[in-house]
Amino acid sequence: MSKNGPHVTYDPRVETRPTTPESVAAALEAFDAPVVLLAGGYDKGVELEAFAGLIGKRCKAVALMGQTGSSLQQHLMKTPLPSQAHRVCGTLEEAFQWSVGESAPGDVILLSPGCASYDWFRDFRERGLEFTKLVNRLSVRKAG
Questions:
Q1: pTM as predicted
Q2: Which domains does the chain have, with CATH numbers?
Q3: Mind listing the pLDDT tens digit for each residue in 37-54?
Q4: By three-state DSSP, how is residue 63 classified?
Q5: 47 in helix, strand or coil?
Q6: Are the C-beta atoms of residues 62 and 89 closer than 8 Å to each other?
Q7: What are phi and psi of 50, to 5 degrees?
Q8: Burial class (CB within 10 angstroms; exposed 0-12, middle 13-18, buried 19+) of 71
């Protein structure tokens, strides 16, 4: 975004289907800066305890979304870092706004949900487009 704000990341060409915990792990490895993650979505039976452990080790904060949001929150509370900032959000916009509020200049805001999007969106493309719109709106406000 800018030098004065967080770096917001979603590149559908690189991370076209961030719908597994393994894809989140790979995405998190790409950054040295603190990460505020947007995670969760449709419950397709993925093992969430290990996913929460990964989030707890690597993320500064996490906005939890969709059907898995509450379950991920419960697992996060059991991780070694239960004081990590996290919040269950009712919409992608709420998750994004909360993430922006939790971030500091130089942090990364990353949409890499680790779950499918079917509970809120038709598919991952629609979710990515909505995220891009939110980023663009924020960029316009910051520039103006």
A1: 0.83
A2: 7-139 (3.90.190.20)
A3: 999 988 888 889 988 888
A4: strand
A5: coil
A6: no
A7: -65, -35
A8: middle
